[in-house]
């Protein structure tokens, strides 16, 4: 259940509610919204007496949350969460502006990263993606440049002001990646790695959480809940397609998740049409569709020479195509009362 406090109620009232919740052997989780504060009650609250909390000073009402996720739930926080990303361009996800994070699948070397970073920035991106630690299906494939790649990303941020989004694959990498990244990416293969979710939940960095390729929406939101429960409210959901029987795509990009997330949660949702389709020729159309459907942002693989990319060349768009995508989504954003 959640306890909705009255608008402008004093902090002592909130503290008192938290105290009572703890006395019931439950966990309190305060969510401060722009208009009012709510306290989410975590734990099995079925046998507890709601009326005790209802009659506390400063309490407006007590509402049950039926969904298993609580802090991520829209019931707990009706207004959308806006997450600033860092960098010098004022990037944020979840507000009126559609946030575009673009760059290579992997950081391959310094010069390619800088060339791509400048190009995506000039075209209007505010975030730079690029993997330094790469989860690869085969141990014989390129595994990423590691810390050297992180250093190049930081240099690209220095030069362009773009916020850096990069993957952290394991708990022992969290501190190192935090030194360089603005946003920690949790890959699809790690969405169920609950210890890693808790570890990034203990950092102060925004987390871009990719949906597991066989995860349901409920499991996806529960993964977000792990991060939030550990203390980090800055979770950006990312749909990157799921595995189906289809052969014409690498993954099936389920854009219906956008309105579903908007109904269930206050967290922003971004779409990755690159992993989501596996084919560069499909990416512009899926970018347009995502913005039309209300996505808060896009994560797009861009390469100056896709034919020679070390990873995911077939799904990476060229610099020219990326610039065209940016123009197209600006027009679509305006049509749906957003900006890009
Ligand atoms: C990526 O973004 O390059 C990537 C590996 O993504 P995912 O975890 O969605 O496969
Ligand atoms: Mn990739």
Describe this structure in words.
The protein folds into two domains: 2-63, Phospho-2-dehydro-3-deoxyheptonate aldolase, domain 1 (Alpha-Beta Plaits), CATH 3.30.70; 83-335, Aldolase class I (TIM Barrel, Alpha-Beta Barrel), CATH 3.20.20.70. The protein has eleven helices and 14 strands. The chain is α/β, with parallel strands linked by helices and 340 residues long. Helix 8 (257-264) links the parallel strand 12 and strand 13. Helix 3 (110-123) packs parallel to helix 11 (319-335) and helix 6 (194-201) crosses helix 7. It is elongated, with a radius of gyration of 21 Å. It has an eight-stranded parallel beta barrel, surrounded by seven helices. A four-stranded antiparallel β-sheet has the order 2-3-1-4. The chain has helices spanning 11-23, 50-54, 110-123, 147-160, 174-180, 194-201, 217-229, 257-264, 273-277, 283-292, 319-335; strands at 2-5, 27-32, 37-42, 59-63, 83-86, 91-93, 99-103, 127-129, 163-167, 183-186, 207-210, 235-239, 269-271, 297-301. The structure holds phosphoenolpyruvate (PEP) and manganese (II) ion (MN).
């Amino acid at each position: 259940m959640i306890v909705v406090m009255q608008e402008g109620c004093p902090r002592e009232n909130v503290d008192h509610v938290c105290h009572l919740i703890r006395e019931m052997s439950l966990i309190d989780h305060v969510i401060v919204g722009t208009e009012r504060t709510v306290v989410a009650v975590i734990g099995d609250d079925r046998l507890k007496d709601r009326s005790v909390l209802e009659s506390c000073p400063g309490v407006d009402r007590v509402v049950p949350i039926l969904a298993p996720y609580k802090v991520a739930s829209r019931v707990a926080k009706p207004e959308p969460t806006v997450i600033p990303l860092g960098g010098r361009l004022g990037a944020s996800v979840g507000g009126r502006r559609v946030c575009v994070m673009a760059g290579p699948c992997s950081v391959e070397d310094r010069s390619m990263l800088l060339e791509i970073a400048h190009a995506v920035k000039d075209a209007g991106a505010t975030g730079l993606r690029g993997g330094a630690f790469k989860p690869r299906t085969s141990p014989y494939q390129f595994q990423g440049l590691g810390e050297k790649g992180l250093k190049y990303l930081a240099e690209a941020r220095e030069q362009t002001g773009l916020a850096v989004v990069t993957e952290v694959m394991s708990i022992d990498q969290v501190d190192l990646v935090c030194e360089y990244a603005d946003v920690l990416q949790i890959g699809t293969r790690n969405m169920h790695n609950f210890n890693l979710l808790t570890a990034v939940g203990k950092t102060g960095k925004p987390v871009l959480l990719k949906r597991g390729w066989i995860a349901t929406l409920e499991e996806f939101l529960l993964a977000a809940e792990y991060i939030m429960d550990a203390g980090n409210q800055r979770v950006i959901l990312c749909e990157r397609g799921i595995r189906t029987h289809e052969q014409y795509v690498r993954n099936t990009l389920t854009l219906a998740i956008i309105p579903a997330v908007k109904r269930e949660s206050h967290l922003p949702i971004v779409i990755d049409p690159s992993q989501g389709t596996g084919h560069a020729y499909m990416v512009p159309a899926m970018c347009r569709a995502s913005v039309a459907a209300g996505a808060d942002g896009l994560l797009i693989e861009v390469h100056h020479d896709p034919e020679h990319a070390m990873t995911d060349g077939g799904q990476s768009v060229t610099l020219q195509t990326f610039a065209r995508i940016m123009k197209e989504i600006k027009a679509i954003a305006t049509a749906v009362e957003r900006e890009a």
